[in-house]
Amino acid sequence: MSALRPRAAQLARTARRAAQTGARSTRSYASSHGHHEPAHTVEEPLGTAFYIAVGVIPASIFVYTVSRPGENGELSFIHKWLQKISDYRNKWERQNHLMAAALQQAAHDKHLLYTAERSRHYELTYPEVFTHGSPFNVPAGHYTNIDKVIAHYKQQHLEEEARKAKKLAAASP
């Protein structure tokens, strides 16, 4: 501690001499009108560059820590995260491709249905389809005689039943 005292005393003497010399040789160029306004103080912020420089240090430590591979050669967190993003993007690409293909197929099928030649023959499943109207307030002679149609469909039904019975008889031992 005693070694610091002489050095401190020497610095104090040097500073005192410089202050006295500076006071004698300084000139004041201020106007002497009798009123002096205090100097305007400006508080300058640290600025964006300071905060960026200070923020880069922890950010780089964080990125370095996260980018290191795990134990037993596991992928790093950043690598896993980038793979998830890539997989998610590929999933949506596949899904969009399938959706576009389905829409194209639907448009093709719709075109086929609208331009296909339609059959003018309708198979009637029951004879009452001709007399579906109201049975009340029908003028005489407005219902046609459909006995031939009924006989045709009865015959068709009997043939179908016979075919089914024959098929069942052949299938059973």
Q: Can I get a quick summary?
A:
InterPro entries: Nuo17.8 (IPR034444). The protein is mainly α. The protein has helices spanning 4-25, 48-67, 77-115, 147-171.
Tell me about this structure.
- Helices cover 61% and strands 0% of the residues.
- The chain contains 4 helices and no strands.
- With 173 residues, it is mostly helical.
- The relative contact order is 0.03.
- It is elongated, with a radius of gyration of 52 Å.
- This is NADH-ubiquinone oxidoreductase 17.8 kDa subunit.
- InterPro entries: Nuo17.8.
- Residues 1-40 are annotated as: Disordered.
- Residues 1-28 have a biased composition (Low complexity).
Which helices and strands occur, and which strands form pairs?
Blueprint: H1 4-25, H2 48-67, H3 77-115, H4 147-171
